[in-house]
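TODO from last week: model Membrane protein.
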Amino acid sequence: MRNRLLPGAATALALFAGVRLAGIAAIVLANHLSGRPALRSLAHSWDSRWYLHIAEFGYGTRAHVLASTGAVQRDWAFFPLYPGLIRALSTVLPLSPGAAALLIAWSAAGVAAYGIYAIGRLLYGRAVATALVGLWACLPHSVVLGIAYTEPLLTALAAWSLYAVLRDRWLWAGVLAALAGLSRPTGFAVAGAVCAAAGWEIAGRRGRVPSGLWWGAVIAPLGWVGFVLWVGDRTGDLLGGYFTVQRAWDSRFDFGAGSLHFLKSLLLHGGRIVYPLALVVVATAVVLFCLLCADRAPLPLVVYAGILLLITICGSGPYASKPRFLVPAFPLLLPLALACGRSWRVRPRNVLLPGGALALTSVAYGTYLMTGGHTPL
């Protein structure tokens, strides 16, 4: 087992850390200047409060009734891996649940960046891998990688599961996919990618198929399916209970009806900057997915990114949150990373100047979302 980083990874990780630490510092400074607690918003914003409550008190201990509809929002909508890790870490170390949540999120973000680099380097070399990590750090909503949310954890598990698939390490791929399925509702995208790649591999093989391949495909969906069935059992509706819980949060697969309604409302009435930018991010993701397919990227990367994109477009819920759902979809950035890699070999300045501007924009916009956006992330 290797005890050192992959060649070139230190540069990519330093780039990632620099951008995201700048983002955290900007939020802390903005909070200080406005008289708010400097770090509290990082660990106690929106969904973070639900994860912390589950970590401290367990499931079935918190509900919120919407005055507008009477719907009862329950903590069963939140998947268990992150609050479980928070509880474990705050039990063994002298940390508050909020501090433990941030430590886990920040560590997972670093592990995810390394996994993204490993995939990029395996497929296209150091330059593209470094660009891929840098682009992921500079996404408009990459501020979510520095707060107590589950996107860093999902991305870390997804990246290394997909890397394991690309290296034919099927058992590892299945186990990591199962854990990803316990991290977020969209975690089943990892299992979908593993199973699709396994099915393609089985269909293409002539002769005996390794047992590890079969086991990886079987294990991959167990985390997501297990939690969905557990919630169903708790609600008294084994197969439908989880989806009933999610509907109370206005989270369901509506085949894009909600997105079309949002687009109509935005065109007729306008809205704060977060709404048109969210539309631009989602539209750009569609274009990048088409380019990813045109570049003939490996099947597991295409399936994983495609499932996340499909859920984002065809799922209901607040449109302002949709760019956050796409943060784990790092394979969408591969076409841009390939272009950056080609430009770097010809003229590095053509990459450094736009990259610096992109990083500053990401830091500024993330600070706005956390301190002045007044829209749940």
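Done. Residues 97-124 form the longest helix (28 residues).
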